[in-house]
Amino acid sequence: xxxxxxxxxxxxxxxxxxxxxxxxxxxxxxxxxxxxxxxxxxxxxxxxxxxxxxxxxxxxxxxxxxxxxxxxxxxxxxxxxxxxxxxxxxxxxxxxxxxxxxxxxxxxxxxxxxxxxxxxxxxxxxxxxxxxxxxxxxxxxxxxxxxxxxxxxxxxxxxxxxxxxxxxxxxxxxxxxxxxxxxxxxxxxxxxxxxxxxxxxxxxxxxxxxxxxxxxxxxxxxxxxxxxxxxxxxxxxxxxxxxxxxxxxxxxxxxxxxxxxxxxxxxxxxxxxxxxxxxxxxxxxxxxxxxxxxxxxxxxxxxxxxxxxxxxxxxxxxxxxxxxxxxxxxxxxxxxxxxxxxxxxxxxxxxxxxxxxxxxxxxxxxxxxxxxxxxxxxxxxxxxxxxxxxxxxxxxxxxxxxxxxxxxxxxxxxxxxxxxxxxxxxxxxxxxx
Length: 433
Ligand code: FES
Ligand SMILES: [Fe+2]
Prior knowledge:
InterPro entries: Rieske_2Fe-2S (IPR017941), Rieske_2Fe-2S_sf (IPR036922), Ring_hydroxy_dOase_asu_C_dom (IPR015879), Rng_hydr_dOase-A (IPR001663). By secondary structure, the chain is of the alpha+beta class.
């Protein structure tokens, strides 16, 4: 039985033994983390640390909740559940996007329980207090003398749309560096005209792993040998430093260099920004933006690397434009292609489960069955997500074993190190450590 915090690292059995983590326990866990090595078991299993993650990371930082095409018309909404928070993200009657706490101002009932839909007004199911799409209380029956409806609008949540990608922040004073992030990434995203797209398909899966394991898995391609479908378009050298490329990847690297030079000419000619901006650590709103070439046919992330949608995005005249990537801390990555966009969001559900939502967007005028086939569009990422979910589930089981201890990252896992570093920096800042 662990009788001190020092024993918790490899035991990961805090709650079986009745030990609750204190602030000092967490500070100690952060302090003794070895840079370049994976985290100790409690970070993936402990209930107190999970609650702290939700409060310190999701409660205080901007995170991704979806995109404008998911709520195209006035009254369209999606709900976001994270920890004890429930939030409504809604298109108002004037076409703007707003976010509200999903909590009635009468006695607190949740207003909307579906994951998405359309409303005229927001009517509480309990006693029918009715709010308009700006959150203003329009109607409440049999209220007492002197009742002032203007005092009972829905509580707003901070929201930013960055080229149509939606981010919310639950903190009263959100990190201000989102403005700089937006200014940096918008020139990269804008040519893909995300606001002129529609949802072609969306899939939610429940991963059997802590949200950080899902994110860590996304941040490396050391395991990409396990993704045969993705391998049609993604170079097997992605994430590798030139000096770490062994004989088995040499030919692919030569191919990458040749295609990268070709694509750079295209990007220059088309006026598409492509240089990597890596701001993943040392700031509250961590991000990385870049445009990279795709392998083989090089057009899209499909099984044959050819475009999945004939109607291209924005004003693009040809589909072979590489992959415009945007990776955000703490819960999001996106691939913007010439013919479609794929967005991903991870939300924590429990200490050991997470929801991964994948959304495929095509031009709003593209016609299913004529311009694109949904199966062809989604097939690579559906297969890849299933493979990743299996990797994450096994990692979770392993991280709960008494035998687990942190192991060293490969040099190709530098983005995992960046994710973990950012996470620990933010946790430390929250704890004032
Ligand atoms: S709790 Fe919403 S109307 Fe009563
Ligand atoms: Fe993967």
